[in-house]
Amino acid sequence: MSIRLASSLVAGAFLASRLERLPDLPELGALAVLALVCVLAGRRWRALSCVGALLASFCWAAGWGLTQLDRRLDSVLEGRDLDIVGVVAGLPVRIERGLRFDFEVERAPPGVPARIVLNWYGARGEQASLARPALPAGSRWQLRVRLKRPHGNMNPHGFDYEGWLFARGIGATGHVRISGDAVPRMLEAEAAGVGYAVQRARQAVRERFERALGVVDGVSVTHPWAGVLIALAIGDQRAIPPAQWDLFERAGLTHLVSISGLHVTMVAALAGWLCAAVWRRVPLLALRCPAQRAGVLTGLLAATAYCALAGFGIPAQRTLIMLATAGLALLAGRFSSPSRALALAVAVVLPLHPLAVIDAGFWLSFGAVAVLFYAAASGVGARHPLRRWLQAQAAITVGLAPLTLALFGRMSLLAPLVNLFAIPLVSGLITPLALLAVLLPVDLLLICAHALTSVLMSIAATLTTPDWALWHGAAPPPWAVLAGVAGAACALAPAGWSGRVLALPLMLPLLLFAPPRPLAGNMTVTVLDVGQGLAVHVQTAAHDLVFDTGPRYGAEADAGERLLLPYLRASGVRRLDLLLVSHADSDHSGGAASLLDGMPVERVLSSVPAHDGLRLLRPDTEDCAAGQRWVADGVLFELLHPPPGAVRRGARSSNALSCVLRVQSVHGGALITGDLLADGESELVAAGAPLAAYLLVSPHHGSRTSSTQVFVDAVAAREVVHAVGYRNRFNHPHPAVAARYEASGATQRRSDHDGAVRYRFTAAGIAIERSREQDARYWHNRF
User: pTM (2 decimals)?
Assistant: First the structure.
């Protein structure tokens, strides 16, 4: 397998992943025939063989997608109670008030997919006696569940949660229902099957590590890095808290807390060396089989066992395939070049995981190995081991910079320095101690591994304290990424090649790209998709305002950290001129702390009370009050509610104090109302407030307690956006409210159906962009 053919396979799978609609079976059949013709003709014209490989890969990926689409939940079953029987297919994950786990369905009503994700919450109130029992991996259960089709937030440059679930074969998500007439029942503690046995083994290792390190409900006071050791042993990274992930990201250590190719190779090499050393010292064994052959086979078996214990992630699969290729070539006495081994790994992984091309790990895993091979082939090397190590670190940093910035929008500038001592420490000491603790139930091994991890992370935290340690860049266009890849290739080219001078000019667009901003007098208003909550970004020529920060999703996750900050950074925003938090409800203020911690904010306005956490974080927070107004870049900003002094006096509910902002450009205006209630609407209309606007963000998410007829008539909006969650329990927007807006002639958008909705107010007109339309893929939920 050559690199050209492997690249063609990747290109075909990537093209299939970009489709909004898949070809039907007759179209795929025609393409498959064309692929076969090209492959046969490729015996004489090599270029055609690459075309044939591309078409074959495209057909395979598209055909796989068609089969997966048929395995999703039937929409008529959404929201209904369903009785199912199946097996817990992976390690349960702790979430707030419960557990989340994959479930392989064995018996269910027609239309229920074979693999789903369930949340099992602890019972409350009258059902407290039916508390969630222990949930062993590989156990068979009879459950009553309520399901919905996979659905995720859709924002510009955001994480594609639906694609991630689709690639894993998940056809529905939901939760376990607990009631008196449907009590969950374990049918079998240990279901038969090799895969289930492996999952039970992984869970046993995790539980033993947790006991040894004092982990209770996912947290250890005495051993805070316990989650790292669990991740290194069994590949379960979900016990690592967000604060530690932030440190890994700043230090460039994320690859070291996963089952990387380096760890798998280390395990194989160590097992093979030990076996060969013992084998050659036992004459009976050495006469029957050469020590080298025994060492290679033992190394491959050890690597396979480690990959199985780690869950067979793509980096582990890639490394195992390459090790197997090299090992078998060695046993056969035939040399296999590293590039051919890498190409073969691509050719095996892609058919097994056709949507791996949408996973950042796929690109970084194969990209890192390709960079090292390219640098070595280009003569980037040295005789002294330390110099080789330094140059390998430099090659990885430069070579992966374009991919890292394109995929994540950020890059650790200190990664080469930190990895100089982190890689030997983690791969040479910490990981072997953790794996030895898997085989030997000796707690001291884990204590020593944790002590070393603590020292490493303390050094990394000290080095990465400055803000400049993590470079943030706006989401680059494809041409800038390609130019950056070409620049990295020039930088790693042989020293004597004159084209190396092009490296920096080619990479500069990637590093310095800034998205275009509105012209003076224009504005862009983006209503983000944050679920059941609100977050709006208003951008003018030189100013940025965020109105509300979305909800809190759990004890350690909120919309500010998961959605707002990535969106703003990808949009090229480095600081906010104003953060306006309309009121204290958590679905509007839940992400404020993360946003303030992650980005400089010049000014904060809000109606939250004096004891609210926002005012503790920012004591300079000003009260919202009607009459406040300012002009930025020719755009007028005006607060219409609450009345002056109302925040200090307080109100019967936080909704009654909701800030209302009107933004008016010369080309049209927007009215953002928070959770304004009906009596507040009446006050505004009676006071003659300037309510007319082209765009209205509906009050209280379209609740029936708002959007009175007199208010709808006063605003006379052409566009109305309801910021709501998918299948939300409040039934927002209320049918009566939706009917009211429809009668007014307004076009209604919903964040759960349209994703983020962006309005560009310009002299050429008002352009409307919907994320679910612009970034549509064939696996996305359709409405």
Answer: 0.90
Q: Among 782, 615, 649, 771, which Cα is nearest to 160's?
A: 771
State the Cα torsion 619-624-627-630 to the nearest 10°. 60
Does 151 have pLDDT greater than 80? Answer: yes
Q: Taking the domain 523-774, which CATH number applies?
A: 3.60.15.10
Nearest to 489 by CA among 655, 611, 377, 342: 377
pLDDT greater than 70 at residue 355: yes
Mean pLDDT (whole number) for 22-48: 87
Taking only the tens place, the pLDDT of each residue in 399-450 is: 888 988 888 888 888 888 888 888 889 888 998 899 899 988 899 999 999 9
Ranges of each domain in the chain: 3-69, 75-188, 195-252+421-472, 262-355, 523-774
Rounded mean pLDDT of 141-149? 95
Question: Residue 25 and residue 30: Cα distance in Å, rounded?
Answer: 9
Q: Rounded mean pLDDT of the chain?
A: 89
**Structure confidence by residue, pLDDT tens digits, 187-228:** 999 999 888 998 999 999 999 999 999 988 778 888 999 999
**Measured between alpha carbons, how far is 672 from 660 in angstroms, rounded to an integer?**
6
Collapse the DSSP code of 359 into the 3-class scheme (helix H, G, I; strand E, B; otherwise coil) and give the result: coil
Percentages helix, strand, coil for the chain, rounded to the nearest 5?
A: 50, 15, 35
Residues in a beta bridge with 748:
720
Residue whose pair of structure tokens reads 């044939």 in the numeric block:
52
Candidates 2.60.40.2550, 1.50.40.10, 2.80.10.50, 2.40.50.140; CATH matching 75-188? 2.40.50.140
Spatial distance between the Cα atoms of 196 and 190, rounded to a whole number of angstroms = 8
Tell me: the pLDDT tens digits for 228-237? 999 888 888 8
Q: What is the CB neighbour count within 10 angstroms for residue 74?
A: 15
Look at the alpha carbons of 702, 706, 709, 713 in this order and tell me if their dihedral is positive or negative.
Answer: negative
Residue 399: what pLDDT?
87
Q: What is the C-alpha separation between 130 and 181, in angstroms, rounded?
A: 11
Task: Give the residue from 168, 166, 170 showing the smallest Cα distance to 22.
Answer: 166
Asked if the bond preceding 690 is cis, omega within 30° of 0, the reply is: no
C-alpha to C-alpha distance for 426 and 244, rounded to whole angstroms: 16
Per DSSP, the residues of 401-412 read HHHHHHHHSEEE
* Of 90, 92, 31, 101, residue with least CA distance to 66: 31
The DSSP bridge partners found for residue 758 are 526, 769
**Residues with Cβ within 8 Å of residue 491, at least 6 apart in sequence:** 398, 500, 503, 504, 507
Structure tokens at 534: 């609100």
